[in-house]
Amino acid sequence: MKILIAHNDYGRPSGEEAVVDHMDLMMRSHGHQTCFYRPSTARHRSGLVNKVRVFFSGIYSLRGIRTIKKTLHKERPDIINVHNLYPFISPAALFTCKSAGIPIVMTVHNYRLVCPTGLFLRDGRPCERCLRRGDEWGCVRYNCEKNFFKSVGYALRGYVARMTGAYQKNVDRYVCLTSFQKKKLIEAGFTAEKIRVIPNSISVTPSWSSMPGKYIAYVGRLSQEKGWDMLVEIARQRPDLYIEAAGFNNSPVTDLPSNIRLRGHLNADQLAGFYRHARFLVIPSRCYEGFPLVALEAMAMGKTVVAPDHGGFTDILGKGPDAVGLLFRPSDLTDLEAVVLRLWHDEKLVQHLGKRCFEKIKTSYSSEIVYQQWEHLFLELLQTQKN
Fold it and tell me: Are 134 and 184 in contact (CB under 8 A)?
């Protein structure tokens, strides 16, 4: 089987790029061929000309259509796996893929099929206005991107994709990462029969770290939608806690309490060591998130996770006696602090949940388990095509 992976890389490294790379490795390790159409936004983030180009490409990318047509002719794949289309591929390219008669599977990393920003977030809180109203123009009305030019561009490209039926008419299967995502797509009018839930996966390490850990770990952008400010406030109020953060920062961080250490961007080996020496991971996101790889990375090391009780986190960590982590009320600083303190002072609970995390990785999120789900889906589509 030959799989064409279509993905527009973001300006900075993201979890989606890691998932795309992992998909490539997972398929090739099982004897399949992969090929790519993979433009990047990295060199087009500044300058008026670049911004205008990005604006119009997201709506209709003639270059994206031409390039994917050439790629299909050259590579002749059996399956097309689409990830991010914006801005240089654009949903318009899906019509070209469909006309080639090749099954299209779209991996749904976020909520962009329904929400122009992909976050379901406004003014620091989850917002589903676009889902409820069935339109994208709230993004402009509320300037969700905090940049009017970008908000208009995001709304317009979402509107055009919806009105032309780029997704509905061309995508054969949508792969959501969690049942929460599937539920939201169905609410937005997407056909339930076309949606599958296949989670992100990770290669399981041969053993897990049982060391108690020296600090609370945070991995990700140091931004408001990620809830970073709540973690800083807890550290400020609780000097007995010690927090280390790894990840990108869009603006200078000032006035941090002394019990927070910023580690910056870490490579894969450094990040593994970072998790290994942590007590647990905190993901305090105000937004729903899709399926954060950082959760899997920590769990694979036997480290439990604290996350908000919304979006995909409820699926990933579970609730009740089978839970592998602890959930807090979304955007509730007091509840987040209580959960963090509970784990910080209860080593036995940390160990117990950490072991459960590692077991869940092996049974639900290992590459072998998840590969079987992908293989089944691809073979199903190819068989349907033959019939």
Answer: no
